[in-house]
From TrEMBL:
It comes from Fulvimonas soli. The lineage of its organism: Bacteria, Pseudomonadati, Pseudomonadota, Gammaproteobacteria, Lysobacterales. This is Agmatine/peptidylarginine deiminase. The keyword Hydrolase applies. Gene3D superfamilies: L-arginine/glycine Amidinotransferase, Chain A. Signal peptide: none annotated. Keywords: Hydrolase. One of its GO terms (biological process) is putrescine biosynthetic process.
């Protein structure tokens, strides 16, 4: 064990790999499995251009199908590692490990209780996933810390320097009996953070996470925040997202300066089977040398990619078709979890 201080790295810091779970007929994707597999294939092909990909599969048949689809799409299979474990669903941003890193190369896999977004869905196998990955040896000698307090990875953003950003709406839903001060202290202790910034406004119809921060506002390098805006006064989101934008403008860095703000364009409403889907451009994924950006087949797709490119200079921008994902109320960032560089088999040669 080590006494070196831990921190939660920013997503734009060097990574070892991205972790995903493959959709299959035993998940909620069954009704539209082929469509969502096309998104996973595009995601995997993009990720493996830049770094390794860990794919959790439910069994050998699911692995064989995933491997065949990836090979057919030209994904770099030398950078893919498969792990067979049971899971309920594929939203690994929320059920996967939140990895803290020490200056001496020590890692801690922080394993919060996963409740299926406040008990909305069954989650017993997903709640056990981090421990199962540890037992499978995926993370080498990294420490594993279980915390019996509900939190999903999509509910927090880190700037890598001690500041965490989250939303009151989500955390209050998970812990209605706890005051903000108590939750603030728990987050600072568990994530080794110096401070927590809270947003009281912002939501998206079709999002059943209760306003996860990764659908609304994201830290970017150089004390910047990328956020989902709404420029349509007739849209029911307009007032709430405008108030969120005001909150973001009022936030200050640890050094007392305002953040540089990058508003994202607003996609036209996407209605599916009578319900509106949450098409957030803020739900992008940063990988080594690139940013993978959700595309919804909307006129705003390219403009959103340009905003994200400006906020993450020097990285290639790759659009990934994500319309199939929002049918199940999430998007690109929600199905992935990045693993920081140095964790276990950090190089492709070790996979």
């Amino acid at each position: 064990m080590t006494d070196a201080p831990l921190r939660l790295p920013a997503e734009w810091e060097p990574q070892a790999a991205v972790l995903v779970a493959w959709p299959h007929a035993g998940t909620d994707w069954a009704e539209r499995l082929a469509a969502v597999e096309s998104t996973y294939v595009a995601l995997a092909a993009a990720v493996t251009r830049f770094e390794a990909l860990v794919v959790v599969t439910a069994d050998a048949a699911v692995r064989a199908r995933a491997e065949g689809l990836l090979r057919g799409a030209g994904a770099d299979l030398a950078r893919v590692r498969f792990v067979e474990l049971p899971y309920d669903d594929t939203w690994l941003r929320d059920s996967g490990p939140i990895t803290l890193k020490g200056a001496d190369g020590h890692f801690q896999l922080t394993d919060f209780r996963f409740t299926g977004w406040g008990g909305k869905f069954g989650a017993e196998r997903d709640d056990a996933l981090v421990a199962a990955l540890v037992r499978a040896g995926v993370f080498g000698r990294a420490a594993h810390r279980r915390i019996d307090w509900a939190l999903e990875g999509g509910a927090i953003e880190s700037d890598g320097a001690g500041t965490v950003l989250t939303t009151w709406r989500c955390l209050h839903q998970r812990h209605p009996e706890q005051p903000r001060e108590a939750m603030d202290a728990i987050l600072r202790d568990a994530l080794h953070a110096a401070r927590v910034l809270w947003l009281d406004h912002g939501y998206l119809e079709g999002d059943d996470t209760d306003a996860h921060i990764d659908t609304l506002a994201r830290f970017a390098p150089g004390d910047a925040i990328v956020f989902q805006a709404c420029d349509d006064p007739a849209d029911p989101h307009h007032a709430e997202l405008a108030r969120m934008a005001e909150e973001l403008a009022a936030l200050r860095t640890a050094g007392g300066r305002p953040y540089a703000l990058h508003p994202l364009p607003w996609a036209r409403p996407i209605i599916d089977e009578g319900r509106r889907l949450a098409a957030s451009y803020a739900n992008y994924l940063v990988v080594n040398g690139a940013v993978l950006v959700p595309a919804y087949g909307d006129a705003a797709d390219d403009a959103a990619a340009r905003v994200i490119a400006a906020a993450h200079p020097g990285r290639e921008v790759v659009q990934v078709p994500c319309r199939p994902l929002i049918w199940q109320n999430g998007s690109l960032h929600c199905i992935t979890m990045q693993l920081p560089a140095g964790l276990a088999w950090a190089s492709a040669a070790a996979i």
